[in-house]
Design a protein that fits this description.
Layout (H helix, E strand, L loop, with lengths): L2 E6 L10 H10 L2 E8 L2 H13 L3 E5 L11 H14 L3 E8 L7 H18 L3 E6 L2 H10 L4 E3 L6 H9 L3 E4 L9 H9 L5 E3 L19 H11 L4 H15 L3
Parallel strand pairs: 1-2, 2-3, 3-4, 4-5, 5-6, 6-7, 7-8
Helix pairs in contact: 4-5, 8-9
The chain binds zinc ion.
Length: about 250
């Protein structure tokens, strides 16, 4: 029985001090598969090394919507060069964030489209970040027949169904652990099991305030989801691992 973390930033500067210890805790907790999200060259350097060393780790590269301040053609050109050089398994995380950066909507949409086009060209799946932007995300996704994952999903079941219709997987994080959070539970109950993924978004989105999240913490999320689905954690592990592998099948 192994656990899969469908979204974590293992190259993050937040792990600089004790990355080896964090990775040890991760492997001791049997979190053997992970999508290593790299949104900076710093993270990419470390992410590349980790994914080369660990057969269960997949490399994802993307320009995050929060990192865009203006239209920047040179930046995308450079990103394309890095993709050719590092040969990632996935493009991401990419998408739209109108919550933190409502003033850069246009740039965000443009870079989202460009990166989806690149994913299609390279035949790679995409990891999608969407915050307060579900309608625009869906409209853009409808233009591109991509494979991939909606990361850290916290929307309605109706919207989830529309993403599922696009063939996407839906990934849930620690929001299922928050007290009084009925909505994720209601959505999780209705998601087809063969489209369900689980993630930490480590070092971010810890269920404990001001705490650094780690991949080893994913066990609690698995247990919560297994409880919601009224199934054994072991069975959930098997299903999620299957889904994780299928994301990367061509
Ligand atoms: Zn993330």
């Amino acid at each position: 029985m192994i656990y899969c973390d469908a979204h974590c930033h293992l190259g993050s500067r937040y792990f600089e001090e004790d990355r080896e210890a964090m990775l040890k805790r991760m492997s001791e907790s049997k979190v053997a598969k992970a999508i290593v999200i790299c949104c900076s060259e710093h993270d990419l350097m470390i992410g590349k090394k980790l994914t080369d060393e660990n057969p269960g780790f997949k490399l994802a590269m993307g320009i995050h919507p929060q990192d865009l301040e203006e239209h920047d053609f040179a930046r995308f050109k450079h990103f394309k060069k890095l993709v050719a050089e590092y040969k990632p398994d996935m493009i991401g995380e990419v998408g739209l964030d109108y919550y933190s950066h409502p003033h850069t909507k246009t740039y965000q949409q443009e870079f989202f489209r460009k990166q989806l086009e690149l994913a299609l060209e390279k035949d790679l799946p995409v990891d999608i970040h969407s915050r307060k932007a579900a309608n625009d995300t869906l409209q853009i996704l409808k233009e591109y027949p991509i494979r991939g994952i909606i990361h850290s999903y916290s929307g309605s079941i109706e919207m989830a169904r529309l993403y599922l219709k696009q063939g996407l997987y839906i990934s849930f994080g620690a929001s299922v652990l928050f007290k009084g959070s009925h909505k994720p539970a209601e959505v999780i109950k209705q998601i087809p099991l063969d489209r369900l993924l689980i993630e930490t978004d480590a070092p971010y989105q810890s269920p404990i305030r001001d705490h650094r999240h780690e991949p080893c913490d994913i066990l609690a999320i698995y247990e919560a989801i297994a409880k919601i689905r009224e199934m054994e954690t072991q069975e959930l592990c098997r299903i999620v691992e299957n889904n994780f592998d299928r994301v990367f099948e061509r």
